[in-house]
Amino acid sequence: MTVVFFPEGAFGPTNNCVGIGRVLLERGERVVFVVEESFAGTLEAQGFEEALMRLKPPPKVEEAPGQFWKDFVRDTAPEFRKPTIEQLETFILPVWQELVDGARYVDGRLRQIFDELEPDVIVQDNVVGFPAVLASGRPWVRIVSCNPLELKDPALPPTFSGYPTGDPAGWDDFRARYRELHEPLQGEFSAFCEERGAPPLPELEFIHESPFLNLYLYPGEMDYRRSHAVGPTWHRLDSCVRSPGSGFVEPGGDGSLVYVSLGSLGSADVELMNRLLGALAETPQRYIVSMGPQHELIELAPNMCGAEFLPQPAILPHADLVITHGGNNTVTESIHFGKPMIVLPLFWDQYDNAQRVAECGFGVRLSTYEFENEQLHEAIERLPAAQSPRLGEASKRLRASPGTVKAATLIQELARKS
Fold first, then answer.
1. Which uninterrupted H or E stretch holds 75?
2. Residue 323 bridge partners (DSSP)
3. Fewest CB atoms within 10 Å of the CB: 7, 36, 42, 362?
4. Residue 245 — left, alpha, or beta (φ > 0 → left; ψ -120 to 50 → alpha)?
């Protein structure tokens, strides 16, 4: 059968789909990735077919993979210093606008791709809807690879807030501000979806729920206690880890090993990266640093090694601690391998993940731009030594039941019965 994956143009959702696609490929299915032109060749090099598209007009100079979002984050980094309720206007709304504009621009090209490939099933890992997916008449799967607060529940904190689950103070104000800012754009986009042959969007949502199959990525040990259950088409993938691969050599020296990654987008904030690494240089630990797209401008200390890209699933089993931005893939992969975390959130669902990591006792949340060096140093010393037994138990369970296998099986079952 032909399975088409359509992930968002960032490394997190793409890597999530790669793990599932690899299982399907090994089972003999045809797997095609619909990716932006800047990603051309990256999926092909991993054995997949590619169908290329654009979400906006071509640039005048050649792009690196996901370059638009790297530039976008770099230019808007000052907004990350603001409280999350203020980011709704200065960061969240502009992101939704860009995503909606992209969905409008690419609609015709997506229809061409689906007509040419004639997929048995389309798997979409995006936060915004694409009417061409629904209008294709093909069975389709929605993957939520962001924090599951994306699945709204009145008894849980609002998405993007980073607010505690046990304290509803501020929830109503945050939701009201979100509605005030986003309702006009959401209404326009819903009308566009109808014009292009898709149903209207649910209230205040920018993406549809699939009537066929929906998957979300989060370890059960961290998942939220809801006031009402998600529907029967929803299935949780506790983790979705790619094959670790090979080529990782643990650096020499003494001291515990700490993996540092603010993601391909977060690492574009060079000032923050150098501030963080300067604080880490004062400690005796060893560090492996994912340096990202601005790697030429990032300064490593003698107790550090790093590169622009690193094989994260190969490194995590060797690490004693992870310092992360709180992206959903890194959080779930860290739990998968039983590694405590220091979370420095920047944007989107990272605040929600940071709060949840702290609430579950799997690490600490620090203020990304205002942490004291002593706070960071204390957490680095304490967390590996005081590792939660519950974290080890979660890791054992996740590794015994890979989400990649579960997802691939559910996708195959959908395709066969449709």
1. helix 67-76
2. 260, 342
3. 42
4. left
pTM assigned to the model:
0.91
Q: Are 4 and 119 in contact (CB under 8 A)?
A: yes
* Tokens standing for residue 386: 């005081």
Give the separation between CA 228 and CA 230, rounded to whole angstroms. Answer: 7
388, two tokens: 């939660």
Residues in the chain: 418
Using CA atoms, how far apart are residues 1 and 138, in angstroms rounded to an integer? 13
